[in-house]
C-alpha cells in the first residue's frame, strides 16, 4: 500500500542524493543543508513514534536539525551548474521534440486526478493500493515518478539526467524551497495560538454577522490579505476558517464546507500572486529568468489575480449557500 510515509522517504532519498552530489563537488554548505533536511524527512516517522513512546531525545535532535537549517540557510548562494549541452543544442532539441515536451508535464495533473478519483477502488490481493488518507498527495508523488520516466523516454535521455536537472533547480532555488512547508506550519501555529479566535471576536464586534454576503466578502478578502502577509494560502486558511468560515458561514449561514474550502483556497492563491513573501513563486522565478526587477513576476500577475478573485467570489456567492 502506498502511503504518505513512502512519499517522504522518496523526498528524503532525493535530498540525500543532492547533498552527496554537492559534497562531491565541494559545495559544503549546500551539501550540509540538503543532507540535514533529507535526514529530517526520512526520520520523521521514527521521531513521532519515539515521541509517542515517551522518548524526548529524537524530538530534541529533530529540533536541533531545524536550527542547523536556519543557520545554514544564509550561506546558500546561487551558483551555476555546468551544462551538459550548449544553449543552441538545447534549443535544437526543443524544436525537434516539439509538443512532445508537454507529455510529461500533462501526466502529472492527469495521474494525480485519476488517483484522487479512483485510487480508493484499486486493490490487489484484497489490499488497497493507496491509503485513503492523503491520497491526493501520494497520487502526486506517483505522478512525478511516472513523469520522470516519461520525460526520459520522450527526450531519449538517461534517468540520471532528470535527477541532475532536479538538483540544479533545487540548488538555484535554495532555502526558498522550504517556504511552503514553513508557511503552512505557521498557519497551524497561528491557529493554536488563538489568532483565529481573536479574528472571530473582532469580526463579531464590527461585522454585520446576520448578512451572509458581508461574512463571505470578509472571508474572501481575509484569505487574500493573510496570504499576502504570510506568503501562502495554506497558512492563511486555518486562521480564516477558524475565525470566519466555520463559526459564521458554515454554522450560522449553512454554507457548503467543501465549496467554501476549495474556493476560499483559490481566493488565497490570488494573494499568492501579489506578494513577495511567496518567494519561491514570485522572487525565485524572477532571479532564474534574470528579470530587471525582482518584482517583475508580481507585476505581470497583478491584474490576473484581481480578475480571478472577482470571478471566484461571484462563483462562491452563487454556489456556497445552495
From TrEMBL:
**UniProt keywords, alphabetically:** Membrane, Transmembrane, Transmembrane helix
Regions annotated as coiled coil: none
Spans through the membrane: 31-49, 101-124, 130-151, 172-191, 211-237, 258-278, 298-321
Q: What is this protein called?
A: DUF979 family protein
- Answer yes or no on keyword Transmembrane: yes
Entries under InterPro entries matching the protein: DUF979 (IPR009323)
List the lineage, top down. Answer: Bacteria, Pseudomonadati, Pseudomonadota, Gammaproteobacteria, Lysobacterales
- Quote any Pfam family the record assigns: DUF979
Amino acid at each position: 500500500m502506498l502511503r504518505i510515509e513512502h512519499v517522504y522517504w522518496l523526498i528524503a532519498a532525493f535530498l540525500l542524493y543532492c547533498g552527496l552530489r554537492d559534497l562531491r563537488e565541494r559545495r559544503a554548505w549546500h551539501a550540509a543543508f540538503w543532507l540535514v533536511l533529507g535526514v529530517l524527512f526520512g526520520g520523521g516517522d521514527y521521531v513521532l513514534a519515539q515521541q509517542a513512546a515517551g522518548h524526548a531525545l529524537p524530538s530534541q535532535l529533530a529540533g536541533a536539525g531545524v536550527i542547523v537549517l536556519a543557520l545554514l540557510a544564509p550561506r546558500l548562494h546561487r551558483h551555476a551548474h555546468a551544462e551538459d549541452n550548449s544553449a543552441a543544442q538545447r534549443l535544437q532539441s526543443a524544436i525537434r521534440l516539439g509538443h512532445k515536451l508537454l507529455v510529461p508535464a500533462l501526466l502529472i495533473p492527469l495521474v494525480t486526478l485519476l488517483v484522487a478519483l479512483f485510487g480508493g477502488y484499486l486493490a490487489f490481493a484484497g489490499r488497497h493500493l493507496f491509503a485513503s488518507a492523503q491520497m491526493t498527495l501520494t497520487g502526486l508523488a506517483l505522478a512525478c515518478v511516472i513523469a520522470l520516466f516519461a520525460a526520459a523516454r520522450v527526450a531519449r535521455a538517461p534517468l540520471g539526467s532528470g535527477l541532475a536537472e532536479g538538483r540544479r533547480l533545487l540548488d538555484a532555488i535554495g532555502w526558498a524551497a522550504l517556504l511552503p512547508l514553513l508557511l503552512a506550519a505557521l498557519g497551524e501555529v497561528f491557529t493554536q495560538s488563538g489568532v483565529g479566535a481573536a479574528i472571530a471576536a473582532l469580526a463579531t464586534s464590527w461585522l454585520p454577522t446576520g448578512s451572509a454576503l458581508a461574512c463571505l466578502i470578509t472571508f474572501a478578502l481575509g484569505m487574500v490579505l493573510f496570504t499576502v502577509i504570510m506568503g501562502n494560502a495554506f497558512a492563511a486558511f486555518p486562521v480564516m476558517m477558524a475565525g470566519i468560515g466555520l463559526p459564521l458561514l458554515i454554522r450560522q449561514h449553512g454554507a457548503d464546507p467543501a465549496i467554501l474550502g476549495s474556493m476560499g483556497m483559490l481566493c488565497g492563491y490570488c494573494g499568492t500572486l501579489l506578494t513577495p513573501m511567496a518567494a519561491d513563486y514570485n522572487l525565485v522565478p524572477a532571479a532564474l529568468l534574470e528579470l530587471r526587477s525582482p518584482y517583475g513576476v508580481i507585476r505581470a500577475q497583478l491584474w490576473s489575480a484581481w480578475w480571478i478573485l472577482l470571478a471566484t467570489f461571484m462563483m462562491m456567492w452563487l454556489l456556497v449557500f445552495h
